[in-house]
Design goal:
The complex is a heterodimer. Chain A is of the alpha+beta class. Chain A is 23% helix and 34% strand. Chain A has two domains: 228 residues, 3-Layer(aba) Sandwich (Rossmann fold), CATH 3.40.50; 122 residues, OB fold (Dihydrolipoamide Acetyltransferase, E2P) (Beta Barrel). A six-stranded mixed sheet of chain A has the order 6-7-8-3-9-10, with helices on both faces. Chain A has a five-stranded mixed β-barrel with strand order 11-12-13-20-14. In chain A, strands 15-19-16-17-18 form a five-stranded antiparallel sheet, with no helix packed on it. In chain B, α3 packs across α14, α11 packs antiparallel against α14 and α13 packs antiparallel against α14. The chains are: A alpha+beta, B mainly alpha. At the A-B interface, β6 and α2 of A face α9 and α10 of B. The structure holds adenosine-5'-diphosphate and magnesium ion.
């Protein structure tokens, strides 16, 4: 079945003077999707979002909301609403007035405003706070008020620009789950910007990874994690060990030799490779197996434990390969088998060629 | 432990000295006011006969009644009303105009925006006293001599206040303006509902400063009000001084001086809380 996307960008670009902040970005967001744009800071996320909101005009390209081009529609006439990074709650108004502000501008009558404000506050789990001042709320509650203020206008698309950035770590973890629940509750399309991959991975139905003004890959969290299509995505989403190598042969997978001289076997990803190409090789820490005394098959080596980064279920070992001197991060298996490993011990390690992703380097 | 006791003692002494210093300073400032008050409660012969009395006499009601109702040239009550109208006119006018011009300069892009800002800034260098002759000419040509508008309008344009509000508006996050805009608020709605309430401590501080500025105007009213019924109180006091061989009615003059101090004091006290907050923090 084909649905009109709630939001569609066609070759959107934005230049500031001679600097291109956003380059030919195209994507479509189906109704009810939690769509994240993930990228390092300065890659053009905010610029893209501000174009969608209507605060900036694209240099070229088209922008459609519910299938209609909105290039000439001012921000308040677009069916989009925006949660700002610092929330932008109006400081001298109480919560009810904040949430009802948009409705007042639309000339809705008082009784209706009051009813709708109460209903939306109910839905975000803040019953009966309408008369309180904004400053009486905690950070997480303010967040919910900011969302309520947008949702009361029933937008087709809600834009969120790093709304968790100002919160402390603990609250951020909590709000991730809450935001996802709110999105399901309202069943509205969310376009969510973040530079924090874990936010994007946890909450999103679809994630676009952005780098230097272009979309590198759009996909589900799983696709990005397990099948990154570019070296940037492989390095940016999740953790990975990275090697630089040169292709030796392309029969039966990729055979290559790293800059440190180790021969590896891997799977080509992204663009096609040729013999002699420089490549970037990525291996996830959890793809690496450990063994105390038997050498392992596949890509393998032997290393000295340089450091143990203990972090409960997410503990990692830092190994130094004894022959090549390369550093390797390995997730510590949770079976308890390696619990007594200590710095200075020597272990065998190895991983499958299938878990070794090879990208054309530059 | 000796050192600690020593320190406590020292702090105690320091405390006393601080207080003593403040009290002496206060007496210095307060003494002339006290003398004026005493002089306003005794009779004319008691003042001119040395030594000067230091304690209030029994003529309080008589002197103040005389000042308020008849005065010397014009009743003081009347002059105070003139002063009040002028001071409020200048204060409110300045605040309204500078709020609006700062709003325009900060939030709107229009051709010549910077030029206008610098033009406003330039007027900082041209206070009334400097441009008094041409201003008089203009006011006279408009037939505004001896009128409230003549007293008020030439003093309204204010670069200082515009500048202050501009600085404040620039600290207001852009996000607020954008949030209001997505919600469909027109610019003036944003100004009324969001910017103005946020500026209230600044407005209060300016109100106090400008009210006193307006109340204390001397030269300009002296120049353009020839009709005693348009005199303001600050210049009125000077007019009460005798010229030539007349005898000064000192108790009434002193009563007038005391009366002239009251409105600024009321304004300061009633706005004290907001005023101090406006000076101390530029609350977000
Ligand atoms: N108004 C502007 N004028 C010039 N350059 C800008 C402007 N806005 C953003 N940029 C530039 O565009 C790039 C992308 O900015 P932005 O979209 O804010 O990045 P992000 O939100 O991903 O951190 C940055 O290099 C920034 O300096
Ligand atoms: Mg940004």
């Amino acid at each position: 079945m084909f649905e009109t996307p709630d939001l569609e960008c066609r070759d959107i670009s934005k230049s500031f003077d001679d600097f291109k902040a956003v380059k030919d970005v195209s994507f479509a967001v189906p109704p009810g999707t939690f769509f994240s744009i993930l990228g390092p800071s300065g890659c053009g996320k905010t610029t893209l979002l501000r174009m969608i909101a209507g605060f900036q005009k694209p240099s070229s390209g088209d922008l459609l909301i519910k299938g209609r081009s909105v290039l000439d529609v001012p921000p308040n006439k677009r069916q989009v609403s925006m949660v700002f990074q610092h929330l932008a709650l109006f400081p001298m108004m109480n919560i009810g007035a904040n949430v009802g502000f948009g409705l007042r501008q639309r000339g809705v009558n008082r009784a209706d405003i009051k009813r709708q404000v109460e209903r939306v506050l109910d839905r975000v789990g803040l019953t009966g706070v309408a008369d309180r001042p904004v400053d009486s709320l905690s950070g997480g509650q303010k967040q919910r008020v900011a969302i309520a203020r947008c949702m009361v206008l029933e937008p087709d698309v809600l834009l969120l620009d790093e709304p968790l950035g100002a919160l402390d770590l603990k609250l951020r973890e909590h709000m991730k789950i809450e935001l996802k629940q709110l999105q399901a509750e309202f069943n509205t399309t969310f376009v969510y910007i973040t530079h924090d991959q874990s936010e994007a991975l946890v909450m999103s139905d679809q994630i676009a990874v952005m780098n230097r003004g272009v979309f590198e890959q759009v996909g589900t969290a799983k696709e990005l994690y397990y099948e990154p299509s570019t070296a940037f995505v492989a390095g940016f989403v999740g953790e990975a060990n990275k090697f630089r190598a040169r292709v030796q042969s392309l029969d039966a997978g990729v055979q290559m030799v790293t800059d440190q001289g180790q021969v590896l076997h891997g799977t080509a990803a992204g663009k096609a490779l040729a013999k002699g190409d420089a490549v970037d090789v990525f291996v996830r820490p959890e793809a690496v197996r450990l063994s105390r005394d038997t050498a392992l098959n596949g890509n393998a080596g032997q290393g000295r434990v340089e450091n143990i980064l203990f972090n409960g279920a997410n503990s990692q070992l830092i190994l130094r390969d004894q022959t090549t001197g390369a550093q390797m991060n390995v997730a510590l298996p949770q079976t308890g088998e390696f619990r007594d490993l200590s710095v200075g011990d020597t272990v065998h390690f190895g991983w499958e060629p299938a878990q070794t992703r090879v990208y054309a380097g530059d | 432990m000796i050192t600690r006791e020593g320190m406590v003692e020292k702090r105690g002494v320091g405390h006393w000295f601080t207080h003593l210093g403040l009290i002496i300073g206060l007496l210095f400032i307060f003494f002339p006011i006290w003398l004026a008050f005493v002089a306003s409660t005794v009779s004319q012969p008691e003042i001119v006969r040395p030594p000067m009395p230091l304690l209030p006499g029994d003529q309080f009601f008589e002197n103040y009644r005389k000042a308020l109702v008849s005065g010397v040239n014009a009743p003081v009550a009347w002059m105070m009303l003139n002063s009040l109208i002028m001071a409020l006119g200048i204060t409110i006018g300045k605040i309204v105009i500078s709020l609006l011009s700062a709003f325009a300069i900060v939030y709107f892009k229009f051709p010549g925006r910077r030029l206008f800002f610098w033009l406003i800034f330039l007027t900082l260098m041209l206070p009334v006293e400097v441009r008094i002759v041409p201003t008089y000419e203009v006011v006279a040509n408009f037939g505004m001599l001896n009128s409230y508008s003549g007293l008020i309008f030439p003093l309204i344009a204010s670069a200082t206040a515009t500048f202050l509000f501009r600085q404040f508006f620039m600290t207001v996050p852009d996000e607020l303006a954008e949030a209001a805009r997505v919600d469909g608020a027109r610019p003036m709605r944003f100004f009324w509902d969001i910017l103005l309430p946020m500026s209230r401590t600044n407005i209060a501080a300016l109100f106090v400063i400008l009210f006193i500025y307006g109340w204390n105007q001397y030269l300009w009213p002296l120049l353009i009000t020839t009709d005693p019924s348009m005199n303001t109180i600050v210049m009125g006091i000077k007019q009460m001084f005798p010229s030539g061989d007349d005898i000064a009615d000192w108790p009434v003059i002193m009563a007038t001086s005391i009366l002239a101090m009251i409105p600024p004091v009321i304004v300061v006290i009633s706005m004290q809380k907001l005023f101090i907050r406006g000076l101390v923090d530029s609350e977000k």
